[in-house]
TrEMBL record:
Keywords of this entry: Isomerase, Metal-binding, NAD, NADP, Nucleotide-binding, Potassium
Residues reported to bind (6S)-NADPHX: N70, N71, G72, G73, D74, G140, I141, G142, M143, N144, R145, P146, D167
InterPro entries found in the cross-reference section: YjeF_N_dom, YjeF_N_dom_sf
Record GO terms (molecular function): metal ion binding; NAD(P)HX epimerase activity; nucleotide binding
Positions of the YjeF N-terminal domain: 18-222
Cofactor binding, per record: Binds 1 potassium ion per subunit.
TM helices/strands, residue ranges: none
Pfam families hit by this protein: YjeF_N
Name used for this protein in its record: NAD(P)H-hydrate epimerase
Binding site for K(+): N71, D136, S170
C-alpha cells in the first residue's frame, strides 16, 4: 500500500481527530465546511488525473455514487468538476436529498444545475463496462455500521472499473481497516483512494491496507 503523501507527514490520525481538526478550523473562522468540501472534491479530481493521465484529454464517462452525508457532498463536488472538465457524469444518491447535511445539500443543488441525480436503485441493473470511472462517495469517516447489501452489490459490480474511493472505500472502517461487509481481499487493483490531510488507520491496517489500493493524501488546508 503506497501513500503518496503531499502534506509532509504520513502518520495516521483517527476519524475523531480529523473531525476535531475540521471543527476547530471552521470554528476559528479560517475556513468554512463548504470550502473544505470544495478542496476535498478538487483533490479527488486532481488525484484521478494524476493516477490516470490518459483520462485528461480523453474525456470519459464517470458515475458518482453519493451517500447521505458529507462524503456524498464531496461526491457532488467531484461530479461538478469532472463535468466542467468535459466529462459525461451521472450521479446516484443513496438517501433523501432533503436530509443531506448543509454543505452536502449546497453541492447537491449546485450539481442539479448541471445534471440530474438518480436514485441509487437505478444502479442495480447498470452496465458498468461503459463507465470506466466509478467514484465511491457513499460513506467516509462517518460510516458507523455494516454496509447495506444493496450497496455492497453495486460496488461489487464495479470491480472492473477504475474505482475511486472518496476518503475511504465505503466498506472499510477508517479507524480499524476492518471490512464492514463480506468483501474479497484481492480487490486493491485499479482502486484509488483519495483521503484528506492525513492517512487514517483504515488505509494502512488490516484488510484496509489491501482493498484501499493506491492511497493519495490531499491537503485541504487544515
Ligand atoms: N466539513 C466536513 O465535515 C468535511 C467532511 N468531509 C467529508 O465528509 C465525510 C464525513 O461526512 P459525515 O460525517 O457526514 O459522514 P459520512 O458522509 O461518512 O456518512 C454519514 C451518514 O451516513 C450514515 N451511515 C453511516 N454508515 C452507514 C451505513 N453503513 N449504512 C447506511 N447509512 C450509514 C450516517 O447515518 C450518516 O447519515 C468525510 O469522510 C469526508 O469525505 C470533507 O468534505 C472535508 C470537510
Ligand atoms: K467513500
Amino acid at each position: 500500500m503506497k501513500t503518496s503523501d503531499q502534506t509532509g507527514s504520513s502518520e495516521t490520525i483517527t476519524s475523531d481527530e480529523m473531525r476535531a481538526l475540521e471543527q476547530a478550523a471552521i470554528a476559528s473562522g479560517r475556513v468554512t465546511g463548504l470550502e473544505l468540501m470544495e478542496r476535498a472534491g478538487k483533490g479527488v479530481v486532481e488525484a484521478i488525473f494524476e493516477e490516470w493521465p490518459e483520462l485528461v484529454k480523453d474525456k470519459r464517462r464517470a458515475v458518482v455514487l453519493c451517500g447521505p452525508g458529507n462524503n456524498g457532498g464531496d461526491g457532488f463536488v467531484v461530479a461538478r468538476l469532472l463535468e466542467k472538465a468535459g466529462w459525461g457524469v451521472e450521479t446516484f444518491l443513496y438517501g433523501d436529498a432533503k436530509k443531506l447535511p448543509p454543505d452536502a445539500r449546497v453541492n447537491y443543488e449546485l450539481w442539479l444545475g448541471r445534471g440530474g441525480v438518480s436514485k441509487i436503485e437505478v444502479c442495480y441493473s447498470y452496465r458498468w463496462a461503459s463507465h470506466p470511472v466509478v467514484v465511491d462517495a457513499l460513506f467516509g469517516i462517518g460510516m458507523n455500521r455494516p454496509l447495506p447489501d444493496e450497496l455492497r452489490n453495486i460496488l461489487m459490480a464495479t470491480l472492473n472499473c477504475r474505482r475511486v474511493a472518496v476518503d475511504i472505500p465505503s466498506y472499510v472502517s477508517s479507524d480499524t481497516g476492518d471490512l464492514m461487509c463480506p468483501w474479497p481481499h484481492y480487490t486493491g487493483q485499479n482502486q484509488l483512494t483519495v483521503t484528506f490531510h492525513r492517512p487514517k488507520a483504515g488505509h494502512v491496517m488490516a484488510d484496509g491496507a489491501q482493498v484501499c489500493g493506491k492511497v493519495v493524501v490531499k491537503d485541504i488546508g487544515l
